[in-house]
Amino acid sequence: AAQIRLHADILSMKTLKCRCGRQMPAMELADHAMVCNKLACYTGIHRHDTVVNAIMACLRRHGFTVANAITGMHAGSDKADFTVYSLGMGGALCVDVSVTHPCAEHTVLASATTPGAAAGKREQLKERHHGDAARRHNYVFCPWVFETLGRWGDRVTSDMKLLEHTVPDPLWFRKDMAQSIALAIQQGNADMPAHAAGATDRAVGPAV
Q1: Distance CA 143, CA 21 (A)
Q2: What is the tens place of the pLDDT at every residue in 128-157?
């Protein structure tokens, strides 16, 4: 029912083979796709871009100026996702979005005892990768991390509360953003088994 509502591809009950080479029933593939380390280029990027595009569109609907991440901020190809200009937040925000699964191998033990542990670990990783570079360019670095089951990281939760105070209708902003992000994450989650099985090569383009 969720896949039909989200217009996602519907998988049959037959045995399927993941792109990593492992065979399993279709129902098991859904869970496997969430944690398979070999699927990042097919599943993680697709879901990430879906969420990034949804956030950027929502921010623009509420009057924020949003642009692609600044180029040249990093020596390599790695960069943050986009920038938001908000005087109420102290200037330009450099945002790096990430979606992580609490049952992934490197976070499952921590997540079992501490709610939000997966998001917290990813926030720390993003801060190490981007924080200093963003500050050198006079940006406020914002690692916005979401867990696949719906929980938001502490930083994005606090940043959204601050952004609420800079828009004409805070309640609408809060509801619009929460719904946009939730739908984008679940759309990405629903598409992951199909990507894992090679049933679709649909991809979301870079955020604009």
Answers
A1: 33
A2: 888 888 888 888 899 999 998 889 999 999
- What distances in angstroms separate CA 190 from CA 27, 29, 34, 150, 171, one per listed residue? 12, 11, 10, 14, 28
DSSP-assigned letters across all residues of 140-205: EEEEEEEETTSPBPHHHHHHHHHHHTTSS-HHHHHHHHHHHHHHHHHHHHHHHHHHHHTS----PP
160 to 18, 165, 172, 195: CA distances (angstroms): 37, 9, 12, 31
Q: pTM for the whole thing?
A: 0.77
* CB of 39 closer than 8 Å to CB of 196: yes
SS3 206: coil
Select from 54, 177, 48, 157 the least CA-distant residue to 101. 48
Distance between CA 200 and CA 194 in Å, rounded?
6
- Which residues, in sequence order, are CB contacts of 207 under 8 Å at separation 6+? 49, 52, 53, 56, 68, 81, 82
202 φ/ψ sector (left φ>0, alpha ψ -120 to 50, else beta): beta
Cα 52 to Cα 34, 57, 177, 184, distances in angstroms: 18, 9, 12, 9
What rounded mean pLDDT belongs to the chain?
78
Residue with tokens 């990281």: 153
